[in-house]
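Students often ask why inverse folding is considered easier than folding. One informal answer: many sequences map to the same fold, so there is more than one right answer. In these notes we will look at a single instance of the problem. The structure comes first.
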């Protein structure tokens, strides 16, 4: 059942799409956390 014709060499796969997706995820998460912190600060100031 094993297919001996295709051998993968570790480290040779193109991962630019995965890197771009990860960078986008990190940016989105960072911006979301900053927006939540700003919203919490504004809520605290309004209710103070």
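Output (designed amino acids):
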């Amino acid at each position: 059942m094993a297919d001996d014709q295709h051998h993968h060499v570790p480290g040779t796969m193109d991962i630019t799409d995965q890197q771009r997706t990860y960078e986008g995820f990190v940016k989105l998460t960072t911006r979301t956390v900053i927006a939540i912190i700003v919203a919490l600060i504004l809520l605290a100031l309004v209710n103070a």
